[in-house]
Design goal:
Elements lengths: L2 E3 L7 E11 L8 E16 L4 E8 L2 E5 L2 E5 L4 E4 L5 E5 L5 E8 L15
């Protein structure tokens, strides 16, 4: 499995990596899934996206902010993020935070999030 770093100057995040889709159009056109990870101290800044997605936590601990509420993340947690809703994630643990990202509709490479929203 090949990991890619998120390297977009307009979308700063720390320690965020992802794989190519592990479920994509070869299986279904209804959704796609990527495996993602964030190292200890990693975070994504508050942003919103133009598609629904959900995070399913596989390993590690962290928090996710959805609009103005913050939720704890542990293995087995599922968080749904409707399109256009501001959100951010932090790895609060001492190991990688690993999670599946489920996109609906399927993720299209090059689709841009709106980064760095005001708190």
């Amino acid at each position: 499995m090949e990991w890619h770093k998120l390297e977009k100057p307009e979308f700063p995040g720390i320690g965020f990596q992802f794989t190519d889709s592990v479920v994509d159009k070869d299986y279904t056109s209804a959704y796609s899934v990527q495996l993602s990870r964030m190292g200890p101290g990693g975070r994504s800044k508050l942003h919103r996206e133009s598609y629904n997605h959900a995070f399913y936590i596989v390993a590690g601990t962290g928090t996710v902010r959805v609009e103005k509420e913050t939720f704890d993340l542990d293995p087995g947690t599922l968080v749904k993020i409707p399109r256009g809703i501001p959100h951010a994630m932090d790895n609060t643990g001492s190991t990688d935070l690993e999670f599946l990202v489920i996109y609906d509709p399927p993720y299209v490479t090059g689709t841009n999030a709106v980064p760095n929203l005001e708190d």
